[in-house]
């Protein structure tokens, strides 16, 4: 059973979204996803200023097992990336909901987040995998 914080929203593709205020959201991958991938060796982050749409593959997480696309859970503009991951991609494994965040996005429509899964819905989706 993975840790699934109830204060976050989730995409079915295993990204989590945390509101930071002013329409900005922090995005990372769930504990479940990093567990499936294994030890991270590299994270290719999007560029600050990139405009992204929901479902776009905008990031790549490479582990000892595989490379996996990370998708934009909402539409908007990338306003920050976690530069710590350049030297320490393992933060995604050790602290997926904290220091292992990937990027921050300024939402085109902050209400879009309401369409994502809550913790219970996400738990049910991974139980079905």
UniProtKB/TrEMBL annotation:
GO terms for cellular component: cytosol; glycine cleavage complex. Binds 1 lipoyl cofactor covalently. Keywords: Lipoyl. Its cofactor is (R)-lipoate. Pfam families: GCV_H. InterPro entries: 2-oxoA_DH_lipoyl-BS, Biotin_lipoyl, GCV_H, GCV_H/Fam206, GCV_H_sub, Single_hybrid_motif. Residues 24-106 form the Lipoyl-binding domain. The modification N6-lipoyllysine is found at residue 65. One of its GO terms (biological process) is protein lipoylation. HAMAP family: GcvH. The glycine cleavage system is composed of four proteins: P, T, L and H. The glycine cleavage system catalyzes the degradation of glycine. The H protein shuttles the methylamine group of glycine from the P protein to the T protein. Belongs to the GcvH family. This is Glycine cleavage system H protein. It comes from Alteromonas profundi. The lineage of its organism: Bacteria, Pseudomonadati, Pseudomonadota, Gammaproteobacteria, Alteromonadales. The gene is gcvH.
